[in-house]
Design brief:
Elements lengths: L9 H9 L3 H23 L3 H14 L10 H23 L8 H8 L10 H17 L2 H11 L5 H8 L3 H21 L1
Helix pairs in contact: 1-2, 2-3, 2-4, 3-4, 6-9, 7-9
Length: 188
């Protein structure tokens, strides 16, 4: 890789990262580290620096294999999201706590479920299992988009900025991702 003074295209950064070049990790962090930390902060708060540091160390030890070298912002968002969720799960397990209930479930319970019918434990569990299976089968970019947008981790404007897309493209991608998820739910 060229010296750190020369500009490097995002695609070259991803290729260098996939090849295990420490200089690529350093450049990537230099260029995008503050955005990665800000994104992680939405999930893990003050632990965001640690999450991103751990992710960078992991990339040095076991280089990632990004699918599309032209979509660095999506790759970083997905990577930081998963690293943050992993961190949360490890921390909760270390404290002996059960996994958190999804925010939507807590909101419905606090409203007394007047908007939606109450599901018995069995159908609700089946629905949650089917949803989890469907979310595992969609692309990581679709999963990030849906979980961030509908989980209210990011505003629509933040999602658009993170992914580097226009408002029309954002709404189109959300619509398509939702349709793909629905299709998977119907076949599950």
């Amino acid at each position: 890789m060229p010296s750190t003074d020369a500009p490097v295209a995002d695609g070259d950064l991803l290729r260098g990262l996939a090849d295990g070049e420490p200089e690529a990790v350093a450049r990537l962090f230099e260029r995008y580290g503050s955005k990665m930390v800000a994104f992680a902060r939405r999930y893990v708060g003050d632990e965001a620096d640690d999450v991103v540091d751990e992710l960078m160390r992991r990339w040095l030890e076991d280089p990632p294999r990004p699918r599309d070298s032209g979509r660095l912002s999506s790759f970083l968002a997905v990577s930081v999201y998963h690293a943050s969720i992993d961190w949360i799960r490890r921390e909760r397990a270390a404290r002996g706590e059960a996994p958190r209930q999804p925010a939507g479930d807590r909101a419905l319970e606090s409203r007394g479920s007047s908007v939606t019918p109450t599901l018995s434990a069995e159908p609700r569990q089946q629905l949650e299992t089917r949803l989890a299976a469907a979310l595992e089968r969609i692309s990581s970019a679709d999963r990030l988009l849906l979980e961030s947008h509908y989980g209210h981790a990011l505003t629509a404007d933040e999602c658009m900025a993170l992914l580097g897309i226009s408002r029309d493209a954002f709404h189109q991608r959300v619509h398509r991702a939702r349709a793909r998820l629905l299709s998977l739910l119907e076949t599950a």
